[in-house]
Here is the input.
Amino acid sequence: MTGFVHQALRYRSEDQFLDTVGRFVRDGLDAGDTLLVVVSLRNITLLGEALGSRFRDLESHDALDWYDCPSRTLGRYHSYCDRQGAGRRVRVVGEPVWEGRTELETREWMRYESLVNVAFAGSGHWILCPYDVRALPEGVVCGAARTHPELVHESRAAVDYADPAAFSAECDGRGLARLPGGADGIRFTRGRTAAVRRALTAYARRLGLSEQRAYDLVAAAHETMVNAVRYGGGQGVVRLHSDRDHVICEISDFGARTPVAWPPFPGHLPPEVGAAGGHGMWLVRQLSDLVDGDLAPEGSVVWLYFRRPARAQPAAGSVNS
Here is the structure.
């Protein structure tokens, strides 16, 4: 196996998509690689017609089912590749879903594309990401050049590609989604988080989240509060808010006497097997639809986002204790 390859295909026609992706798939099957195709249903149909009987030799999924949130998607790809065994190269055709995303969601999906380069570095796998330039916003199309080391049929990647650490810092610097000043706070300390959990459960149910997603919100918030107690001075404040798209839980602390050395990309990448730390924020990101944060020695704040059901209507913005 060769080193990890991460390419973007900015295609302008169905023929260009089929020619490039079809060749990528056929070459992989001929080489004995495992093929995973995660694209739109329309493109699955097109590939099935173009590949004929060979389409049965690969695994395919609708991108809408696979690309629900960045951290869970990264986890799925990790789990899939791990199941194939250390000596087997996996070729992936992965087409992220950009339609209908908020500005924050789009930013986090672009960060995801950049973090793929870190998550699979040295793995030997090969990921090809199609971008339909006819339908996507210009910012997303241009962003592909900054998050992929190679552009198929293009030569600009070496100039435009950004180091993932620098790109992630740039995403963080675009402005954090602070809650309105009127959102009330619920204080918590070590061993005293029950009131917060009750308020979270009631608020999530009132806004129409399912029992499972309400449970996930409480579990993610609890794990974040544990981190705040452990690393943020032993106490903090939870604030709850909602907009038309998300239920938002903000968890802040007051900083610790001993500064914490946070790892790079906290919670974005799966922790190493047997690692003593790093599991908490990874779990938080797996449970939440989006996580935003500002981690600093003088005090950290983390925002957990849970997408509201489409039928739910905006409710009162905040909840108090």
